[in-house]
Amino acid sequence: xxxxxxxxxxxxxxxxxxxxxxxxxxxxxxxxxxxxxxxxxxxxxxxxxxxxxxxxxxxxxxxxxxxx
Length: 68
Prior knowledge:
The chain is mainly α. The chain has 2 helices and no strands. The chain has one domain (about 15-65).
């Protein structure tokens, strides 16, 4: 693999750590197992987090490694 591809892969792996810890915190705060309403709110919050975080990470990678 090229060095560029390895750097992008490393950035993706490092970018997953904050999401993991934010999701654990969100589970503690929202307690989705208590009722269905909290579960759906938790799922909506995770969906929004995935969409926003994906856009941020892709934007960061595109800015750091522009298309040739």
